[in-house]
Design a protein that fits this description.
Chain A: Pfam families: FANCAA. The structure holds 2 protein chains of 2 kinds. Chain A is an alpha+beta fold. In chain A, 25% of the residues lie in helices and 35% in strands. Chain A is built from 16 helices and 42 strands. In chain A, the strands form 10 sheets. In chain A, strands 2-3-4-5-9 form a 5-stranded mixed beta sheet, with no helix packed on it. In chain A, strands 16-15-17-18-19 form a 5-stranded mixed beta sheet, covered by helices on one side. Chain A has a 5-stranded mixed beta sheet with strand order 39-40-41-38-42. About 8% of the residues of chain A have low confidence. In chain B, helix 20 packs antiparallel against helix 21 and helix 24 packs antiparallel against helix 25. Chain B is elongated, with a radius of gyration of 35 Å. Classes of the chains: A alpha+beta, B mainly alpha. At the A-B interface, strand 14 and helix 4 of A face helix 2, helix 19, helix 20, helix 21 and helix 23 of B.
Chain lengths: 831, 620
């Protein structure tokens, strides 16, 4: 909870970096930056722009400033050590450069190489001495040159250290040195007369003396510390390197201080005390942290000593820097601030100090590959400059309040409470996250569902638009077709309509869909008001390729009135989009009014022809028994007693109506293949009686006796006649469809049905009729005259009906009936 | 076709202009390194232009001359291998121009082909110029074998039966060095040849010296002396000759040549240094100190002036780094100063040479100042010797100050040593003589003993200073501190003086020194007690002191005095006689300089005691 919060500013962004050779040096407001390529950028922090680009010949390995900060030394991958004066605006303000907004490109000439040695690995400058470290044939050699010197540089001295061939570390030297170059650090003893150089770290005199000996301390000589890739930390006194050994001989100036056993990334000093930094800190690449502290001499006069404390932080450590109290280091994933505390030996034992030391705070900045600073800006906050792997230059503002680090740790009871709080808040957040996740899931599901619904609708609307095409036989993705059937239930036959909803589309119809079938009688009888009925069948799921069969009765309130129009439609209820348990009341309220979308599927017509019964096997209950007499008659009929009916059908001779159609027309329309006239007649009859079974012949003769729904026998008969005088260009073959029945209702109904079918047939394919027949004027005239006479009679009858009153209705109906029969008996030929 | 001669003219003119600029710069008072760089880059550009078109015999002379100039200019800016690569390129082009194709890249073979093809043509002077470059490059890389092969190839026409020897080959080398006035060169081939000749001979000599074949080396140097050479080089030759003589055991001849060297070249520091070494060998402290003093002044003068070498080819470039350091090695100023100061004191207090102590003190103060100043210089020793440990230098300075009666300064200097060593003093330092210590461990032990010794000696010197300042109380305190420090070193075995330690003389020496210091401290405290009249304490301390360092005459005397005062006259007279019978007490020359306190100590007037004792003995 006490995580250090820091703010990060993006100062600039450059291209990607090479992690191992990114270097940042801060010099006042200017920042010298290299990303491991050929450029050294001079970045002005105040103006936030690159003022100068120094272009070198090869990619950069290491950078350093000379003691007076007037010269830049750069080690490049070609083994050349370049020394170039810094551009003038850094040291003094040059007018023309400052005015130009663009950065100045400055190519470093190749004659600024002061040293060329391909085995150079690192260098540093102190006390006007250039110290280089090179690796040649498994010997590390430190070379000291005069700086600034003539060219070639005057070599002052050379010390050598043999590389270590320990098994634990032994990769090939080249690989190692490439992956992690050695680190050279120059450490000065802090003293009253110490040189005020901010380029190099200082160390308090006491520890300095203990670590580096009496001689360095007496001469106030800086010490060069070198972290080699094999993990050893070597040191030598820069100014008095060659001192007499104990036995008077010359001894090697380079001494191994300690080995981290992993490549050394950083060496510095930390924890400022009264006389300067009190700790020497070294950080290894794999996270080993070495802290060297002095142990004060106790009162008994025991020898003062220093202690090496090794700790471990999570590696890999890419870079590090220190300020007074903290070590900042960057693993790839985060930037950490490690609190290093001042523990004098009197107050803390070793273990305590170790515990206290390792309070590392995450700063939450990732992928930092180079650090500069930290430095304190005028407002007092501490800032770090960092370069990320992706080439961003960041300024990390560290939180103020250095005393925060000194706050004692919480007592255990409070700590327990804090842990509890923390866990509770974690649980809360988890719950919230979970519910949000659930909601999101539901929303997604709903959207998916809705999407599917809309998809289905678009399919259906397409259907609708192409209805004509569909009628021609192409299959709809979602279709509904119905067949009227007689079924017998409880000894009573009833006409039902079986609808089949077939989903041959690619999508599944999920729950929420309803198949609606509306049955609407077309005839308007006196009792037929509001007799249309709707049946809805909600279903849970209809997978692609599945079928749904539903059966609806066609009779309403016990009466069958044909023809009936059936509208099939698919309805989707929007409330199904919301799962019932979770839908908020608001949404369901909104949905109550218009909560569904409906799409028409198909429209069917059930007429008398559909309702005919071929077999004649009546179950006796079918007979209408609207009245008591009907019931009695039905009973009697069932007992086999034929009684004389009071109906007109029994009284009079059967009524005949006739429809004539040009046989050629029917042949083309119905695609009849039959050649003989008998077969042709059978086919036509078949088409009329059982259109759904077009292939096989359910009717084997041109005459068929069937029963109408009300139980009357009806004779349907198709025959071919030749009209000799009808057509001018020869005799015309005409199919005569004749309906004979004693029941007027059946005859009328069937006639209407036949005409409707023909009408549908002809309407749908009217375009194809190419040639017109040349009709004989004589026959046409006769036909017109006949119809005219009938019309006149009808008018007379109407007039009389209008004048007469109710008394003469019987007569009138007789007259109308006669006209009807005449009209039907000798119809016009449908060509 | 008419373009080519025109190009040749233009390029020749360009070349001549570059050389003209260079010559003017060379003649100027302030030779400028930038001019040289400019000349180099211009002539390099010219060379690249010439190489841009196929090689042809018409342009061969021009091309080779420009190459020669470019190589000379590039000496300071490129390394040898780069120049050599370019040289190989030039040779290949020369062969190409003559129509013979040589694809081998080995320089020796290439040269063979070049000399065969062009050896008798008009291009010989140019070829020989490039040959000089090749010679120079191999000389720089110390490849005398290859130089010999090359020169033999050149001399091949003359059949002589003399043994193959670089010196003779060089001497007999006949190069045609005629200059073509139309094509200027940066350095005349003859000059370069002479320089190379002498440097080659010198190199030979140095190699012989390194192999400790001094007479052969002497021959080489004597040959070199006969050759025309620049002054500085001649000075170095004389110095090297002197060094050879010194090694051959002829110090006076050596001195003679060193003198000649300094006469020829006043800045020949190595001659001064070497003569100081010879004077030390000869036991002439005054001359030695003078030589060192001269050397120190010269070094200081030289470090002031900028050492920019104007000449195109300097011997420093021709000799590889290692050879040059061998030839002109001089210790760093601090080292010289210390040697000078140390020598002054040693001569005065061990060899009793009458030298003014104030000089030595001044040298030490200079040295301390140079160690402390901000503009520090790196302390390097040229000749494999090492600089003494810094606390030792401080103690010596303290000692010198004490001797020069600058007691307060001595106190301050010793305080430095005390504070710096304080942290290293262990509670007790137990040395086990039987324990075998190897390398680093024994070094650690010795270092610890040293630290205790330095701290003890610093206290001892402070006590002396206090005593001289008549502050007896403070003196006793410091003597006690010195004793307390020194007794921390403790050896397990009692008979360590007879036995040989795991390590050795160094340890024995340390222990002797520690014992001597202990003895001096005890004696000093005894003397203080004696002066303060605490005779019992004085007796105890003086007795202990004699146990530590038996045979110290002064201590014996004081003991006699104490006994006398305690009215133990018999014992006193016995002591007296004993002291006089063992007249020649072994001198403690092996002690470090800063512990050479007592021999001249006249703090206590012994004549009184002598009178008393003689009177007593006669009276008996």
């Amino acid at each position: 909870m006490d995580a250090v919060r820091c703010s990060v500013e993006y100062l600039s962004e450059f291209s990607d970096c090479q992690s191992h050779s990114v270097r940042v040096i801060q010099d006042g407001v200017n920042l010298l930056l290299t990303r491991g390529d050929r450029e050294v950028l001079i970045f002005n922090v105040l103006e936030r722009r690159v003022t100068t680009v120094m272009l070198f010949e090869a990619s950069m390995i290491h950078l350093a400033l000379s003691d007076d900060k007037h010269r830049l030394y750069a080690l490049c991958a070609n083994g050349g050590l370049y020394c170039t004066p810094l551009p003038p605006q850094l040291s003094s303000s040059s007018v023309q450069v400052n005015k130009s907004p663009d950065s100045v490109l400055f190519t470093v000439p190749d004659d600024s190489i002061v040293l060329k040695n391909a085995s150079l690995q690192a260098f540093t400058i102190a006390e006007k001495i250039l110290v280089t470290l090179s690796l040649h044939k498994s010997v590390w050699s430190f070379d000291l040159y005069e700086e600034p010197g003539s060219r070639p540089l005057h070599k002052l001295a050379c010390f050598q250290v043999v590389t270590l061939n320990t098994c634990c570390l032994n990769l090939t030297d080249k690989e190692k040195s490439v992956s992690s170059p050695p680190v050279l650090t120059c450490i000065y003893p802090e003293g009253p007369t110490s040189v005020s150089t901010d380029l190099h770290p200082h160390l308090e005199p006491h520890l300095f003396r203990l670590l580096f000996g009496v001689d360095a301390s007496l001469v106030n000589s800086p010490v060069i510390l070198c972290g080699l890739p094999d993990g050893r930390i070597c040191c030598f006194t820069l100014l008095v390197p060659t001192l007499a050994g104990p036995t008077g001989e010359q001894r090697s100036p380079v001494r191994v201080l300690q080995s981290l056993e992993q490549p050394v990334v950083f060496i510095g000093t930390c924890v400022s005390g009264e006389h300067g930094p009190q700790c020497l800190v070294a950080v290894g690449q794999r996270g080993k942290l070495l802290i060297v502290r002095s142990k004060q001499a106790s009162l008994e006069g025991k020898k003062a000593d220093y202690s090496f404390n090794e700790h471990s932080v999570r590696g890999p450590v890419l870079c590090a820097c220190v300020d007074d109290k903290r070590l900042y280091y960057s693993s790839l994933s985060d930037l950490h601030a490690l609190q290093l505390t001042t523990t004098s030996s009197s107050e803390a034992t070793e273990t305590e100090s170790q515990l206290q030391t390792l309070t590392s705070d995450s700063l939450g900045v990732c992928r930092v590959v180079a650090l500069a600073g930290p430095y304190t800006n005028p407002t007092g906050s501490v800032q770090l400059l960092a370069v990320s792997l992706s080439g961003r230059l960041l300024r990390v503002n560290l939180p103020q309040g250095s005393e925060k680090g000194n706050v004692p740790r919480l007592p255990s009871s409070l700590a327990g409470q804090k842990v509890k709080d923390l866990l509770a808040s974690i649980a809360n957040i988890w719950e919230r996250a979970e519910s949000l996740k659930h909601k999101l899931q539901k929303k997604n599901d709903s959207l998916k569902h809705l999407n599917q619904v809309i998809h289905v609708y678009s399919l259906l609307l397409d259907n609708h638009g192409n209805e004509k095409a569909c009628n021609m036989g192409t299959k709809h993705p979602i279709s509904c077709c119905g067949v009227a059937r007689w079924s017998s239930l409880l000894q009573r036959d009833s006409l039902t309509l079986t609808c089949v909803l077939e989903n041959s589309s690619g999508c599944t119809l999920e729950h929420g869909w309803t198949l609606c079938i509306q049955v609407h009688p077309l005839s308007k009888g006196p009792n037929m008001e509001g007799s249309s009925r709707t049946y809805s069948f909600p279903f849970m799921k209809l997978d692609s390729g599945q079928k749904l069969d539903v059966t609806v009765p066609l009779e309403s309130t016990g009466r069958l009135s044909l023809p009936v129009k059936v509208y099939c439609s698919l309805v989707f209820s929007l409330s199904a989009l919301f799962s019932p348990e979770a839908s908020s009341p608001g949404v369901s309220q909104l949905l109550t009014e218009t909560g569904s979308i409906s799409a028409p599927l198909s429209t069917l017509t059930v007429d008398w022809l559909d309702a005919l019964r071929l077999d004649g096997s009546f179950s006796h209950g079918n007979i209408r028994h609207d009245t008591v007499t009907d019931g009695i008659q039905a009973f009697l009929r069932s007992r086999g007693v034929l009684t004389k009916d009071s109906d007109t059908t029994t009284k009079s001779a059967p009524i005949t109506v006739m429809v004539r159609v040009s046989s050629e027309l029917l042949k083309t329309k119905l695609h009849l293949s039959a050649t003989s006239s008998g077969e042709r007649c059978m086919s036509v009859l078949n088409w009329l009686v059982s259109p759904e079974a077009r292939g096989q012949m359910s009717v084997q003769s041109p005459v068929v006796c069937v029963y109408s729904p009300d139980g009357c026998s009806v004779k349907l008969l198709v025959k071919e006649v030749t009209l000799g005088d009808f057509c001018s260009d020869g005799p015309l073959e005409v199919l005569e469809i004749r309906v004979e029945s004693s029941s007027v209702a059946a005859v009328c109904g069937l006639h209407h049905a036949i005409l409707r079918r023909l009408q549908v047939l002809l309407r749908d394919s009217a375009v194809k009729c190419g040639h017109t027949k040349q009709l004989k004027a004589q026959s046409l005239f006769e036909a017109v005259r006949h119809v005219e006479s009938l019309y006149k009679e009808l008018q007379d009858a109407q007039n009389q009906a209008a004048l007469g009153g109710t008394m003469k209705t019987n007569k009138n109906s007789e007259i109308l009936f006669r006209i009807f029969l005449q009209l039907r008996a000798n119809p016009l030929v449908i060509l | 076709m008419s373009v080519i001669p025109c190009l040749v003219d233009r390029w020749s003119e360009e070349n001549n202009n570059i050389i003209l600029t260079w010559k003017q710069n060379e003649r100027g008072l302030e030779p400028n390194q930038h001019v040289r760089k400019r000349c180099w880059s211009e002539s390099l550009k010219l060379l690249q232009k010439i190489r841009g078109i196929p090689a042809a015999t018409e342009r061969l002379e021009l091309e080779m001359t420009v190459s020669y100039n470019t190589f000379l200019f590039s000496l300071n800016f490129c390394n040898a291998s780069e120049i050599e690569e370019s040289l190989t390129n030039s040779l290949s082009r020369a062969l190409e121009a003559c129509g013979s194709q040589v694809s081998c890249s080995d320089p020796v073979q290439l040269w063979e082909a070049v000399l065969q093809t062009l050896g008798s043509s008009v291009y010989v002077p140019c070829v020989h110029k490039l040959l000089l470059i090749q010679w120079m490059l191999w000389l720089m890389q110390c490849q005398s074998e290859r130089v010999l092969t090359l020169l033999m190839q050149t001399n091949h026409k003359r059949e002589h039966s003399a043994p193959v020897n670089l010196q003779t080959e060089t001497r007999n080398l006949a190069l045609s060095t005629e200059e073509d006035s139309s094509l200027k060169v940066a350095m005349a081939a003859k000059d370069l040849k002479d320089l190379l000749h002498i440097c080659t001979v010198m190199c030979e000599g140095v190699e012989q010296m390194k192999m400790e074949r001094y007479s052969e080396a002497l021959e080489a140097f004597q040959e070199a002396q006969g050759l025309p050479s620049p002054r500085s080089l001649l000075g170095q030759i004389h110095t090297l000759t002197g060094q050879s003589f010194a090694k051959l055991g002829q110090p006076h001849c050596a001195l003679h040549f060193y003198r000649k060297a300094v006469e020829v070249d006043g800045a020949c520091l190595s001659a001064l240094y070497q003569s100081a070494l010879v004077f030390r060998q000869l036991g002439n402290p005054k001359a030695e100190i003078e030589a060192l003093h001269l050397l120190y002044s010269a070094v200081q003068l030289q470090s002031d002036k900028s050492s920019s070498i104007a000449s195109l080819v300097s011997p420093a470039v021709l000799f590889g780094g290692a050879q040059m350091t061998f030839i002109s090695r001089v210790p760093s100023p601090s080292r010289i100063l210390h040697t000078l100061a140390h020598t002054c004191l040693i001569k005065k207090y061990i060899y009793f040479v009458s030298i003014s102590i104030s000089d030595g003190v001044e040298y030490y103060l200079d040295l301390l100042a140079s160690l402390q100043s901000d503009g520090k210089d790196l302390i390097l020793t040229g000749d494999g010797t090492s600089f003494p440990r810094i606390p030792v230098v401080y103690l010596e300075a303290g000692f010198a100050l004490l001797k020069a009666k600058r007691y307060c300064d001595a106190l301050v200097v010793c305080e430095e040593v005390i504070t710096s060593t304080l942290d290293f003093i262990p509670e007790r330092l137990l040395l086990d003589a039987d324990e075998k210590l190897k390398g680093a461990d024994s070094d650690v032990v010795l270092e610890n003993v040293d630290l205790v010794l330095w701290a003890g000696a610093a206290h001892l010197l402070q006590a002396q200073a206090h005593w001289k300042l008549k502050d007896t109380k403070e003196a006793i305190t410091n003597f006690t501190r010195a004793i307390n420090q020194l007794v921390k070193v403790f050896i397990k075995q009692k008979d360590w003086k007879q036995k040989h330690f795991g390590n050795t003389e160094a340890m024995i020496e340390r222990m002797v020194t520690v014992e001597a210091a202990k003895g001096q401290a005890l004696a000093g405290r005894g003397l203080c007690f004696l002066e303060g009249g605490q005779l019992k304490e004085a007796l105890r301390d003086l007795n202990l002191s004699l146990q530590m360092t038996p045979g110290c005459k002064n201590t014996e005397m004081w003991l006699t005095e104490v006994l006398w005062r305690l009215d133990r006259r018999e014992e006193a007279s016995a002591h007296w006689r004993e002291v006089h019978s063992t007249e020649d007490a072994p001198k403690s020359i092996k002690l470090p300089l800063y512990l050479q306190l007592w021999p001249d100590d006249t703090a206590f007037d012994l004549s009184d005691l002598k009178k008393k004792m003689e009177g007593y003995i006669q009276a008996k």
